[in-house]
Each structure stands twice: as structure tokens, then as C-alpha cells.
Design a protein that fits this description.
Distance between the termini of chain B: 38 Å
Radius of gyration of chain B: 17 Å
Shape of chain B: globular
Number of strands of chain A: 0
Strand content of chain A: under 5%
Structural class of chain B: alpha/beta
Number of strands of chain B: 12
Strand order of the largest sheet of chain B: 3-2-1-4-9
Order of helices and strands of chain B: EHEEHEEHEEHHEEHHEEHE
Number of helices of chain B: 8
Order of helices and strands of chain A: HHHH
Helix content of chain B: 25-40%
Structural class of chain A: mainly alpha
Helix content of chain A: 40-55%
Largest sheet of chain A: none
Radius of gyration of chain A: 12 Å
Oligomer: heterodimer
Largest interface: A-B, 18 and 17 residues
Strand content of chain B: 15-25%
């Protein structure tokens, strides 16, 4: 990984909720950040695509397999924190 | 007198496909395609720089109206070659076949032609499959290879039993009737729509064209007055050949991520499949041949 910046955890979480909501046409109020992605129809392909968008949006480089370790919004935030990309 | 224009032009891209291309062209030939007599379609094969490029005479026995174009080597993306092929197409309905490793089901062409009559601005899409027991970027790590693929095709008596391709294949994600469709390997649009779109976006320069095929499909569906028509019962089936995204060993996830990055960089929006379910054209051997 090539760390280039750090992101506020709350800002990242909000971004992820908005992203998933936009992809699935869901009201963001209904999205649980702890729930597995597939519980609301966000599949592994979409998660990898999201990883690419994350890289572009936040100027970071990430291992896309991290979205499979704990496939949830909270899981992604935690993985990026572990990688030193989130504060 | 010039020859009458065919009903459809199919632009096929190849690169180092000596093993798989003969089958692909056979699957587009009059002897295989149902209700598609000689002269119905022209096939424009654009080879994107193979070391030993295919020759039209090698496929003369297929009875195709075939033009072979040799595009200069050196471009990892097929987009420029594909756009050149599209510019040569003579028919009012033009199909982009971005991956010459994909076999057609036996009614794909005639179903597309019939579906095209249903709307003045049709976007005709068929689902993508991978030959074999799983997506090929997975199955190649589980022992699937050329010999097994040859055995599978022989086991269903292909090409005589073309629809049995479904028996030995795996559907690709995001290509089902209710999925948010990302792309199709056999995209039929009117000549006018291709011209309006400007063909494929040449900025998709990454290997295999990156998200260029998804991009043109999405733009076509979003074009004013366009009508997505998904074929049911007809499809394309990917043969193993070491292609960039379909077979990439160990790199499928990274490739998908990089495709996403490229798309977002160029379009400033995420790569999301087309949500409009469109119309379903009921084709296939048991289809009703209508919506």
C-alpha cells in the first residue's frame, strides 16, 4: 500500500453510506454500517468497484481484498484504520 | 453494381486467438446461426496486432461475408481497432464484439435483428457466460484449461448442439435479466446511434479496453430515446485464452479495481450497471420471438 493521506473516520463512513445508498437507490437512513454488504444487496463486485472509487476520491492506494475480510461499512473503515489511512 | 448492404455488421476483435477464433467465427456463420442465410450479415474481423494475424482465406469454408483487417501492433487496448472496424461497417445495424474469444448461441443474430425492429433506437444486449464450471479467473486455478474446454465442447456435440453451451457454462455477474447490467459482448446499435455516441471512448487505453465496453453500453442506454432490449435465451460464451479481465491469473480483483478507477477518473461517477430493466425479448430455442 502507498499511503498518501489520512481520512477522518466519520467522513469516510458518511461517504461509504452515501456511496452504497446511491448505488442501490437506498435511503441512507436505512443503511446499517455494521450490517454485511450482502444483507442489503451490495455484492462483492460492487465492493471492489467501490475500492477503486475510494482510491480515486481520496488519493489512496488500498488492497481491494480488505473489503472481503469484514464486508461492511464499519469493516472497511476499520481496515483502513489498521492500514494507517484513517484517523 | 455494389453488393447490397447486409442487415447487420458484426465487428469482431481478436488478438493472439489462433485457437479460439475459428470457433467464434464458426458460431457467426450461416451454417450455425439460425434464420441467418448468407448475405444477412457481414463480419469485420479486426486483428489487434497478433504475431501471426488471421487471414480471410483461412475461414473461407464458413461461408461468411468476412473482411479481415490487420491493425498495427502495440496497442494494449482494442478500442482504436474496434472504432476502426465500426467505421467500416456497411449495415444499418452494427454489433460490437469486443472479445473474439466469445462464441455465439445459435439464434443470437436473428434474435437481435428481430428485436431491432421493435424500436427505432434499440440497445440490444445479451448476457455473457464463461465456458466451464466457474468464472474462468477462478476455474483456471482449479485445473480448468484448454484441454478441458475442448473436452467440454465435444461432450455437448458442439457446434451441432449450440444451445447446449448453457449446460457447460457459468453466467457472468451483472448480466442477468434483473441484474444491473454492466456490459454485453454483443452490443447491437443502429448506425445512427453509433455515430451519435462517437463509437467507443478512445481514452479507455488500459489493457483489454478497461471499462470501455461498459462505458459505451451505459452511454447507449442513456442516449435520448434509447430502449434497452435484453435477449433472453441467447448469449455469448467466453473461451479461455489468457485475456486481460476474463482469465487474468491472480489479478482479477486488482483488474476490476483498476477498471473502476479508470472509469471514475474519466466519468467522475462510479461504474454502476444499468438499472433500467429494459424490455426482455424472449428468444432462444423455446422463445416466443417477441417481448
Amino acid at each position: 500500500m502507498n499511503e498518501t493521506t489520512t481520512i477522518e473516520a466519520a467522513a469516510l463512513r458518511d461517504w461509504l453510506v452515501a456511496y452504497v445508498g446511491a448505488v442501490l437507490d437506498l435511503d441512507v437512513e436505512t443503511i446499517s454500517t455494521a450490517a454485511p454488504f450482502d444483507s442489503y444487496g451490495f455484492d462483492s463486485v460492487e465492493a471492489v468497484i467501490m475500492a477503486g472509487v475510494l482510491e480515486e476520491e481520496f488519493s489512496i492506494r488500498i488492497d481491494p481484498t480488505m473489503v472481503f475480510d469484514d464486508p461492511s461499512i464499519d469493516g472497511v473503515v476499520a481496515a483502513l484504520r489498521t492500514a494507517g489511512l484513517v484517523r | 453494381m455494389p453488393a447490397p448492404a447486409p442487415a447487420a455488421s458484426i465487428v469482431v476483435i481478436s488478438y493472439e486467438m489462433a485457437r479460439v477464433l475459428p470457433r467464434t467465427l464458426l458460431s457467426l456463420s450461416p451454417g450455425y446461426q439460425r434464420d441467418c442465410p448468407p448475405g444477412t450479415i457481414e463480419v469485420i474481423l479486426v486483428d489487434n496486432g497478433s504475431r501471426i494475424p488471421p487471414r480471410a482465406e483461412d475461414f473461407a469454408a464458413l461461408g461468411l461475408d468476412l473482411t479481415v483487417v490487420h491493425w498495427p501492433a502495440g496497442d494494449v487496448s482494442p478500442i482504436a481497432a474496434l472504432n476502426h472496424g465500426l467505421s467500416l461497417a456497411r449495415a444499418p445495424l452494427v454489433c460490437a464484439w469486443i472479445d473474439g474469444a466469445r462464441l455465439a448461441s445459435p439464434g443470437l443474430v436473428s434474435a437481435s435483428l428481430r428485436a431491432a425492429r421493435l424500436h427505432p433506437r434499440p440497445v440490444i444486449a445479451s448476457p455473457n457466460y464463461h465456458l466451464g464450471p466457474a468464472h474462468q479467473y477462478i476455474s483456471i486455478h482449479q485445473g480448468y484449461g484448454e484441454a478441458e474446454e475442448d473436452r467440454l465442447l465435444a461432450s455437448i456435440d458442439w457446434p451441432d448442439q449450440g444451445y447446449r453451451l448453457y449446460d457447460i457454462s457459468t453466467p457472468v455477474w451483472k448480466s442477468g435479466e434483473t441484474d444491473r447490467m454492466l456490459e454485453t459482448n454483443a452490443l447491437f446499435l443502429t448506425r445512427q446511434m453509433w455515430d451519435e455516441l462517437g463509437g467507443y471512448d478512445a481514452r479507455f487505453t488500459s489493457s483489454g479496453g478497461g471499462a470501455g465496453n461498459c462505458d459505451v453500453f451505459i452511454r447507449a442506454c442513456e442516449a435520448p430515446g434509447a430502449q434497452l432490449i435484453r435477449l433472453r435465451g441467447e448469449a455469448t460464451f467466453h473461451q479461455i485464452h489468457g485475456g486481460t479481465t476474463s482469465n487474468a491469473p491472480n489479478f482479477a480483483i486488482d483488474v476490476a479495481k483498476d477498471i473502476s478507477r479508470e472509469y471514475y477518473r474519466l466519468r467522475r461517477r462510479p461504474l454502476i450497471g444499468v438499472k433500467d430493466p429494459g424490455w426482455i425479448f424472449d428468444a432462444g430455442p423455446n422463445g416466443r420471438g417477441k417481448l
